Structure formats: structure tokens, C-alpha cells
Amino acid sequence: MNEPTHAELERVKRDADLLYSKPEIDAAVVTMAAAITARLQHENPLLLVTMTSGLVPAAFLLPHLDFPLHVDYLHLTRYGSATTGQAIQWVRRPRATVVARTVLLVDDLLDHGLTLQAAAEECRA
């Protein structure tokens, strides 16, 4: 499938419905960060960002996590440039060791959960 054109992306943006305002999203991120902090602040966790979809949520979340942690990323996809999911394809596995680590996976979409499930299984393996 071809990449969408600038005009197509502009049309999608123009026609999209606003589900949550920026203040609502900011408040949700602060609430999520507080819950993560309460649970993981003494764990020295590894925060794994799913590329590319997890980049923005991780950028919103990280400034609110005021405790020691490590950050790495992984890249797997079911979609590629398509609009429907296919088989999982790994682009990059995490470089940081996950052995005996508390791992926090950060992504932005939960469709059927298959990509997140594959990432979690890779960490457990």
C-alpha cells in the first residue's frame, strides 16, 4: 500500500472527531503517571516504548516519572503501511536486558491487543 498523501492526511485531520481535549489528555497522563510512580518507583523499571506509536505517549509520560528508570524501545508491527492488521513483524527487539527486570510497555493503541501481547511474550521469553 502507498503512503498517504499530504492532502489525504489533511482531509483525515479535518474530518476527525475530537474525542478528548488536550487538558483532558494531560489530566489522564498525570493520573496514569501517579499510579505508575506509586507502583514502580522502587523497582528501577525498564520502560519499553513501542515504535512508532508509543513515542508520543512516552514523551507525555516521562516528565511525570520522577524516579530512576531505564528507557529502550522495540519495534514490531501488524499494520506496516496498511490499514488492516496482518501477522506480527519484528523490526527491532529491545537491546536492554529484560531478565529479572520490571518492564513497563508503552504504546498508544489497543486494537485487538495482539501487538502488545507479542511484545509482552518477547519480554517473558
Short description:
The chain is α/β, with parallel strands linked by helices and 125 residues long. The protein is built from 4 helices and 4 strands, in the order H-H-E-H-E-E-E-H.
Q: What would you say this structure looks like, in words?
A:
- The protein is of the alpha/beta class.
- Helices cover 38% and strands 18% of the residues.
- The chain has one domain: Rossmann fold (3-Layer(aba) Sandwich), CATH 3.40.50.
- It has a four-stranded mixed beta sheet with strand order 3-2-1-4.
- The radius of gyration is 16 Å and the shape is flat.
Distance between the termini: 33 Å
Instruction: Bin the strand percentage.
Output: 15-25%
How many helices?
A: 4
Strand tally, please?
4
User: What oligomerization state is this entry in?
Assistant: single chain
- Secondary-structure class: alpha/beta
Form type: flat
Total domain units: 1
Please list the strands of the largest sheet in the order they lie side by side: 3-2-1-4
- The low-pLDDT segments are none
The SSE order reads: HHEHEEEH
Percent range of helical residues: 25-40%
Residue-averaged pLDDT, rounded?
A: 90
Biggest sheet, open or closed, and with what strands and sense?
4 strands, mixed
Question: Can you tell me the CATH topology?
Answer: Rossmann fold
The CATH architecture classification is 3-Layer(aba) Sandwich
CATH class (first level) name: Alpha Beta
Cα-atom radius of gyration:
16 Å
